[in-house]
Amino acid sequence: MRSRGLDLARGRVDLTHGAGGRATSRLVEELFQPAFDNAPLRARDDAAVLDLPPGRAVLTTDVYVVSPLFFPGGDIGRLAVCGTVNDLAMVGARPLNLTAAFVLEEGLELASLSRIVQSMAAAAREADVTIVAGDTKVVERGKGDGVFIATTGLGVVPPGVTSPGGARARPGDVVIVSGFVGDHGMAILSCRDGLAFESPIVSDTAPLGDLALAMTAVAPDIHVLRDPTRGGLATTLNEVASQSGVGIRRRERDIPVRPAVAAAAELLGIDPLYVANEGKLVAICAATDAPRLLSAMHAHPRGADAAIIGDVVEDGDHFVEITSTFGGRRILEWSSAEQLPRIC
Amino acid sequence: MRSRGLDLARGRVDLTHGAGGRATSRLVEELFQPAFDNAPLRARDDAAVLDLPPGRAVLTTDVYVVSPLFFPGGDIGRLAVCGTVNDLAMVGARPLNLTAAFVLEEGLELASLSRIVQSMAAAAREADVTIVAGDTKVVERGKGDGVFIATTGLGVVPPGVTSPGGARARPGDVVIVSGFVGDHGMAILSCRDGLAFESPIVSDTAPLGDLALAMTAVAPDIHVLRDPTRGGLATTLNEVASQSGVGIRRRERDIPVRPAVAAAAELLGIDPLYVANEGKLVAICAATDAPRLLSAMHAHPRGADAAIIGDVVEDGDHFVEITSTFGGRRILEWSSAEQLPRIC
Q: Which structural domain range is residue B100 located in?
């Protein structure tokens, strides 16, 4: 009965797709299940029953409202999978399972939804996680914006690994960043503002679970791991300084920023240190751990450009300070303004 | 520095609250953390590290877009906690931890958000779960509708309990419902349409974890447990019939419907069997288990009105059939239309 199936080529989301009846069921059976295929999802029960490996369980959630839905280097689906996987990785966990909840706006092309779902499935395979449960709701035209996706991740910290935490930075520690910063945010902004550059700026959206596990394997007591998403590197460093009650001093060496990103940032009057990353991490570790951590990062494709960018110091004000190339100092403030709405 | 705090009495959500900087941080520190207070949330890391008790882990997710946000008997916050707790309970799990992700519309009164957050905290205490991780995004005016909340639940199936599942109904089993059906959906519709009745219709939104554990304690092999939410009892029974490859015959005895709900349903031309419930469950078990299951339910405040309503039979068509009081038979179809948008 072909006529009863979803018309993925020309169809659009309507309110019946969120009503919990036949249309909802069809969306699940014809779109979500084949794409995310796994046993708990096939069971079609209210919750997925899982067998976790030994270790401490880890749970995290994020909701994605990025605009536009598709951008150079990714889309909301890839972002939703990678962002949540990365939050698990940042506490030292092996990412295992995701859930995905969709708020669809009436009128959304089913072809766009399908493209997003396929992209999620591909990112999940890349990150070696399964999407075991989901939900779909539909809101009237003008009460949403195409698609919002909430993803929650479950992982396990392997036995022997001490979970990194934002409150664990200590004076004497060094600060490492895994590569070029500002790519994701500038890709979104460039594409939103219709900016054209010689080399297009591409989002760095990528899963970091494998890199993080390679790092904890050589240094099982990394003090802090963070992915500098919203608010960028500057905000992440300020959060850590505040949580740990320390100061952070950026070293002379420049924080790696791609020329195209730096150019676009200058054009738009934005500091790339405040721009979101979706495939980069910051690690803070004891100075003695830094060399082998850096080697392990350089040996991994997602950490090839890793560099030490600063030091943790005692500072009752918890300032993050930058020394300019001319020897001057400036404090890297918290981002207080909404420079970049709906970047993730 | 009072001026830098949130103005919960007169303030409104703006785009900075979702930008990941100081304003986001303030929202977390002054609203979410005090309300949901627990150790993983206080740690302010990307993910919550948890120690789970023995048993199989269970994960579920739902996103809530109910309109209006506040309704007789509940609000979107209470609904978001209870709905997700109930999905865990329906596979035999003890609900333990929740995550909550918010999509806020620019302009939302902070007082409304605060009221919703307090209601979530109260429901979490009632359900004995902790909200261990969260996320907040803000979308521009006209790109959302006040608040959407995605909640994900983690629980554990105690050792010795066989997880109920929608595919486990067998011919000869009996079908039990825990109380009056249609309350939640009719409460939303009445309040949306401004209908006035002598006795107002109140949503049944409530956590069912405790009732479900009382049930699995006396009958550790309940075949199916489901909360008949979207699509109501009729859709739930059809889903189970389809998943299990069986038919279901409703017994002569009436399915319990409150007079006010029946009256409102008639007025609106809606069958209460298709109306969402948020504090009721359906159990399908071996006939030999039914008496002690029913006793355990009757002894619990959330199951006081429990009744056997049908039998599972062999049926290649997987029909759910009702025998009318006059002896006629009708098939209870799947709900195919969007009768009730944004009911949860």
A: 15-157
For residue B119, the domain's CATH number is 3.30.1330.10
Under 8 Å CB pairs connecting chains A and B tally to 277
CB proximity B244 to A under 8 Å? no
**Count of CA atoms in the C-beta half-sphere (13 A) of B238:** 19
Residue among A47, A88, A166 whose CB faces B44 most closely: A166
In this complex, the residue of A21, A91, A235 whose CB is nearest that of residue B334 is A21
Surface of A (320-339) touching B: CB under 8 A: 334-339
The answer to whether A273 touches A182, Cβ cutoff 8 Å, is yes
Total domains in the fold of chain A? 2
> Mind listing the pLDDT tens digit of every residue in chain B (344 residues)?
334 688 999 999 999 898 877 888 899 999 999 999 999 998 888 899 999 999 999 999 999 999 999 999 999 999 999 999 999 999 999 999 999 999 999 999 999 999 999 999 999 999 999 999 999 999 999 999 999 999 999 999 999 888 999 999 999 999 999 999 999 999 999 888 777 666 789 999 999 999 999 999 999 999 999 999 988 999 999 999 999 999 999 876 678 999 999 999 998 888 899 999 999 999 999 999 999 999 999 999 999 999 999 999 999 999 999 877 677 788 888 775 556 789 89
ipTM of this predicted structure = 0.94
Instruction: Specify if B168 maps to a domain.
Output: no
- Out of B52, B139, B167, closest to residue A145 by CB: B139
A283 and A185, same structural domain?
yes
Cβ–Cβ contact A64 with B under 8 A: yes
Would residue A289 count as lying in a domain? yes
Q: Strand order in B94-105's β-sheet?
A: A48-50, B56-64, B147-157, B94-105, B130-139
pTM of the model: 0.95
User: A58 and A194: one domain?
Assistant: no
